[in-house]
Amino acid sequence: MTEKYQQFRKHVGEIFDLDAVVSVLEWDQQTYMPSGGAQVRAMQIATVYRLWHENLTGDEFSAALEAAKEETANLDPDSDEVRIIRHMQREVDQWRKVPSEWVSEFKRLTTLAHQAWEEARANDDFAHFQPHLEEIVQMRRQYSEFFAPYDHPYDPLLDYFEPGMKTSDVKAVFDELRPRQVELVREIAERGAPVDDAILRQNFDTSKQWDFGIEVIKALGYDFERGRQDKAAHPFTTSFGIGDVRITTRFDPKYIGTALFGTIHEAGHAMYDQGISPSLDRTDLINGASYGVHESQSRMMENLVGRSRPFWKAFFPRLQQYFSSQLGEMDLETFYRAINKVEPSLIRVEADEATYNLHIMLRFEIETALAENKLSVADLPEVWNSKMEEYLGLTPPNDADGVLQDVHWSSGYIGYFATYSLGNLMASQIWTKMEEDIPDLTNQIERAQFAEMLAWLRENIHQHGAKFEPLELLQRVTGNTLSVEPYLRYLTGKYEEIYKLS
Amino acid sequence: MTEKYQQFRKHVGEIFDLDAVVSVLEWDQQTYMPSGGAQVRAMQIATVYRLWHENLTGDEFSAALEAAKEETANLDPDSDEVRIIRHMQREVDQWRKVPSEWVSEFKRLTTLAHQAWEEARANDDFAHFQPHLEEIVQMRRQYSEFFAPYDHPYDPLLDYFEPGMKTSDVKAVFDELRPRQVELVREIAERGAPVDDAILRQNFDTSKQWDFGIEVIKALGYDFERGRQDKAAHPFTTSFGIGDVRITTRFDPKYIGTALFGTIHEAGHAMYDQGISPSLDRTDLINGASYGVHESQSRMMENLVGRSRPFWKAFFPRLQQYFSSQLGEMDLETFYRAINKVEPSLIRVEADEATYNLHIMLRFEIETALAENKLSVADLPEVWNSKMEEYLGLTPPNDADGVLQDVHWSSGYIGYFATYSLGNLMASQIWTKMEEDIPDLTNQIERAQFAEMLAWLRENIHQHGAKFEPLELLQRVTGNTLSVEPYLRYLTGKYEEIYKLS
To answer: Which domain covers residue A352, as residue numbers?
Structure first.
C-alpha cells in the first residue's frame, strides 16, 4: 500500500491502542483490582477514553481518512483497505456527534457504577445502585438526542451494538417469536415427560469444575497462548488484540451449569476474536461484526454444541471421571435431558434455550420504556418483578436475583440485550449452513473433533471481523436475511424429542 | 485554591493517569499477559507513553503551569501546591529535552526487550537478549546526549533515578565504602565463627511460603484493601494511585529466602507508596522522593527489620508452625545466624548485607563504561564474569545466573542499581534517627507491633512523596547529609556479633 494509506493505518492503530488500553483497565478492574483502586481507575479510564475520542474525531484523523479514501478508490470494495476505511468512516461519523466531555464523563460514571452494582448485588440493595443507574439512563437519553432525528429514541442505543438494526426490526422479530416460544414452553409444561435436573445441583468442587472447563474449551479450540481465563463477578470476554483475547468465568459450588456453560459461552466469543484475520489487528474491526454476530458464536458454542447430545457423547465420560461420586452412576441420556430441562427461572444466564428469549424480551421492553422516558429507574424493581410474573410466572424473592442480576446496565450497556436473541437466531441460520457444508459434523463432535468446525467458522465468519455489517455477513454466509424459522425449527425439534411431545 | 491552580491540577491529574495506565499495562505484562499479547502490548504502551509525553511537554500544560506559579507565588514554599508546581516544572524541563518519538520508541523497545530477557534468562541464552540490549544501550546514550553538556555521560541516566546525584558523588561514596566493606567480608571469611544456612535450603511448600509471607507483610502494615500480591519472574512494586499499590513476588521451592525477603522488600516499597498523602494522589509525586529513598524503605524492611533478631523473636515460632518438619527442631539463634550468613554469591537479590553493595559496584562500573562507550554489549558476559571473580571470587556457571539475572536493563533502567546502595546508606541513617525517637522500638518489634514504626515512617518520610528532593528529605529527617558511617556502624556491629569477631 502507498504512503497515505499507511499514514491512515498508523492513526487507526494508535486509536485502537487507546480503545484496547481501556479494555485492559476494565479487565483488571473486574478481575484483580483491589477495592481501593476504584476511584483513580475511573479517572484513568475516563482520561484514556477522552483521548481515544479526541483522536478518532479530530481533524487530523479525518484528513488522513479522506486522503486514504482517495488513494484507495479503485481497490476491490471487499478489500481490507476499503473496508477498514469504511468502518472508520462510520465510527467517525457516529462519534463526531458525541462530545468528548460526554464520552469521558460517561466512562467515569460507568466505571464507578460497576463497583456500586457489584456491592448492590452482593448486598441485595437496589437503592445503592439506583442513583448510578439514574445517571446512566439520563446520559443514555442524552446520547440518543445526539443522533436526533430518529424513528425511536432507542434506535441510537441499539445501533451502537447492532449496526443497521432498528427498534422496529427487533420488535417485529420478537412479535414473531413470542407467541411460538410461549406456546412451546406451555406445551412442555402441560404435556412434556418430566425431566429432573437435581443431579446438576450437588456439591461440585470448583477447582475440578475449573479443570474440566479448561479441558473442554481447549478441545473446542480456544488458544491459551493467545488468551487466558480468570474469575469475575460476571463472566465476559475481552480482546486487546488478536494475540490476547481473555475470558472470565464464575463458579457455583452447588450447581455445575453456571461455570460449565458460562465458560463455553465465553470461549465461543473468544474463538471468534482469536480467529480474526491478522491483517485487521490493531484496528477497531477486530471487535467483530456486531454484538449480535458475537452472540451467535457464543450462544452456538454454548447451546448448539455445548448442550447437544453428540457433544456429551464425547465429554460425559470425562465429566464422570472428574465427578465420579456425583455423576458416576448416571447414564448419558439422563444427563443430556437434565442440562436441557425447560423451566421458567429467575436468572437469564442460567435459563434454558426455550425460555431464554423471554428474559430478553422483558429487558427489551424495559429498556425501550427507559429510552422513551416512560419508566423511572426507581420503579424498576417493581416493573421487573411484574414482568417476570407475566413472562415466566415467577416473582424474584429479591432484587439480587431480579433487576440486579445483570452487569450490563452498570457498564452503560443499554441496548445490548436484544443482541443475545438476534445471536440465537443467527446461530441457527449459520449452523444450518455449516451442517450442509460439513455433512460429517455430528460425527466429528461425537469424537471431540472440532477442527473442521472451527476452520469453517473462521473461513466464513471469524476472519472477517467487522469488515461486513451483520446482515451483510449473514447474507454472504447463508444466502438469507435474518429469519426466525431455522431457530424455531431447531428449538421445536430438540424439545419435542426431549419432552416426547410428538 | 483558586481557578488557575485548579486548572493546572486537572492537567497534572490527566498526565498522571497516562503514566499510571502504562504501569497497569506493564504490571499485566509481567503477571498475567499471555505470550501472544506481547506485540500489541508494546504498541499500546508506546502509544500511551507518547501521549503522556506530549501532554507533559505541550504548550498547554506549560501555560497552565506558569499561570499556577504566578497565582501561588506567595504560598508557603513547603505547601503541596508550591511543591507540586516545582516538581512538575522539573519534569517539564527534563522531558522537553527528549523528543516524543524517542520516548515512544524506547517504551516499545523495552516492552519487547523485557519479553526477550525473560526468554533469554529461562534458556540461558544471552545472544537472544543481546540485540535488544544493544538497542537499549544505544538509545540510553542518545538520551544522555539530550542533556549535554554534562560532567559525565552517565549523569543524566543517574539523575533520572536519583535527582540531584552525580556520577562523581556515587563514585566517592563507593570509594569510601569499598575498602571497608571488602575488609569486613575478608575478616568474616578468615576469622569468623562458621555459620551454616543449609536449613534454609530444604523443600518448602510454596503455597505455605505464600501464606507466611502474607501474614508477615500484613503485620508490617501493608494494606490489602489498597493492594495485592501476585507472582512475577522478577519481583517489583507498582503504584497506580495511593489506593492501588501492588507487589509481586517469586518462589524457590528449595530455598525459603527468595520469597521471604523478596516479599518483605517489596512490601517496604509498597508501604511507602501507600503512605503518601492523599493530597498528592493523581500527581507524579506519589512515586516517592527518588529510587534511592524508595530503596531505603524496602531495604530497611528487608534487612534492618526482616533480618533482625527482634523480628524473628516474634515470627520464628509462626514460621516453625508452617514448616514444622523442616524447622521445628531448630532454635532461634541458629536460624538468625543462617539468614545472615555472609558468603559471596552469584545472585544480587539473594546476597547478604555484607556483600550486597559489591554486586552494585560491579553493575555501576559496567553501566558507566557502557555510558562512556568503552564497553560493548557483546562483551558483557565476559566482563561480568571477570568482575564477579574480582569482587566476589566467583565465576558464574552460566549467564542466567550471571549477566542475565536482573530485569533492570531489559526495562531500560540503566542508572538504577546505585540507588540500592544509596538506599542502604539512607536506611541506616533514618533508622538511627527513628531509634532515638522510639526508644521502645526493639521491644515493639519483638512483639510484632509495627504501628508506631510505620506511623513514624509515614510522618517523616512516606507522606511527603516527592515533595522534597532526596538529600533535602534526608536532611529534614536526620539533620545530616548522606553518610556511610551509620551504615558501616550497623553492618560491623551486626556481623561482629554474629561472627564473634571481637
So the answer is: 167-498
Q: What are phi and psi of A301, to 5 degrees?
A: -65, -45
Q: Residue B244: which of A33, A46, A244 has the nearest Cβ?
A: A33
| A9 touches B at CB < 8 Å | no
Is A24 at the interface with chain B, CB within 8 A?
A: yes
Mind telling me the catalytic residues of B?
266
Residues of chain B with pLDDT under 70: 1
Q: In total, how many domains does chain B have?
A: 2
pLDDT at A1: 58
CB contact under 8 A, B32 and A228: yes
Specify whether A102 is located in the same domain as A202. no
Q: In what order do the strands lie in the sheet with A237-239?
A: A229-231, A245-249, A237-239
In a domain, B133, yes or no: no
Give yes or no: residues A138 and A190 share one domain: no
CB proximity A372 to B under 8 Å: no
Residues A176 and A141 grouped into a single domain: no
Whole-number Å distance between alpha carbons of B292 and B66: 30
Please tell me the distance in Å from A22's CA to the nearest CA on chain B.
Answer: 9
- Where a domain ends, among B71, B88, B123? B123
3-state secondary structure of A248: strand
User: Partners of B246 in the beta sheet?
Assistant: B238
Q: pLDDT-based confidence at A233, cuts 50/70/90?
A: confident
Residues of A in contact with B227 (CB under 8 A): 34, 36
Task: Look at strands B229-231 and B245-249 and give their pairing.
Answer: parallel
Rg of chain A on CA atoms, in Å: 22
In angstroms, the Cα distances linking B485 to A70, B432, B482 are 72, 11, 9
d(CA B298, CA B463): 16
Compare CB distances from B36 to A25, A37, A225 and report the shortest one's residue. Answer: A225
d(C-alpha B432, C-alpha B437), whole Å: 9
A110, A30: one domain = yes
Distances (CA, A) of A497 to A193, A196, A336, A490, B250: 10, 16, 12, 11, 55
Q: Could you tell me if residue A153 is inside a domain?
A: no
The number of angstroms, rounded, from the C-alpha of A210 to the middle of its chain's C-alpha atoms is 21
User: What pLDDT score was predicted for residue B350?
Assistant: 87
Whether A220 and A370 have beta carbons less than 8 Å apart is answered as: no
Q: How is residue B270 written as a grid cell?
A: 509498597
If pLDDT is split at 50, 70 and 90, which confidence band does A166 have? very high
Question: B202-238 pLDDT, tens per residue?
Answer: 999 999 999 999 999 999 999 999 999 999 988 999 9
Q: Are residues A172 and A315 in the same domain?
A: yes
Q: Do A47 and B18 touch (CB under 8 A)?
A: yes
Identified catalytic residue from A266, A302, A353, A367: A266
- With CB atoms and an 8 Å threshold, state whether B21 touches A44: yes
Name the DSSP letter for residue B302. Answer: I
Assign residue B76 a region (left: φ > 0; alpha: ψ between -120 and 50; beta: otherwise): beta
Give yes or no: residues B86 and B174 share one domain. Answer: no
Q: What is the dihedral of CA B358, B362, B368, B373, to 10 degrees?
A: 170
Prediction ipTM score: 0.94
Question: What pLDDT shows up at residue A447?
Answer: 98
The one-character DSSP state at B275 is T
Q: Does B51 fall in a domain? A: yes
Interface test with A, best of B17, B105, B282 (most A CBs within 10 A): B17
Q: Does B488 touch chain A (CB under 8 A)?
A: no
CA dist A158 and A52 (Å) reads 22
A14 — contact with chain B (CB < 8 Å)? Answer: yes
**B156 assigned to some structural domain:** no
Contact A48 B21 (CB under 8 A): yes
Both A336 and A469 in a single domain? Answer: yes
Take residue A254 and report the three cell numbers written for it.
452447588
